[in-house]
Amino acid sequence: MNKASLCVVVVMAIAVAGCEATDGEEIPGTGDLISIDGTADASEDVTPPLPEVTPEEITQPDVALPEPDVGDPCAPGEGCFGESCDTGSDCLSGICTLHFGENVCSKTCDETCPAGWACQLIGQGSDGQYACVS
After folding, report:
1. Fewer beta carbons under 10 A from the terminal one: N or C of the chain?
2. Is the model's pLDDT at 63 over the cut of 70?
3. Rg over CA atoms, the chain
């Protein structure tokens, strides 16, 4: 047997000898009682109690929810974004565009539009403007 193997055997023997306990003795560092056959003593509950928490102590996670895009306040039937139109004059924004095969009112945009729409330059020359298109 070489030195490394002998060291492993000696360390294991010391570890096993240190773990032996007699009936009802506590194994150091575990807080468990064991019997001679090595099973845990079921008469003692080793589960720590949960702290009592009142509803007032429960807090919600600090998460910032996105603000809803309310856009321009518009009553239905006044040419609001997404309403049917035939020409730009039917829309508050003056923009009537094609969306899923139907003409609907759109709106101007700076960078973002609702889901399913993109902010793009429409028109040409000095009359061009950015609007939400499908």
Report:
1. N
2. no
3. 37
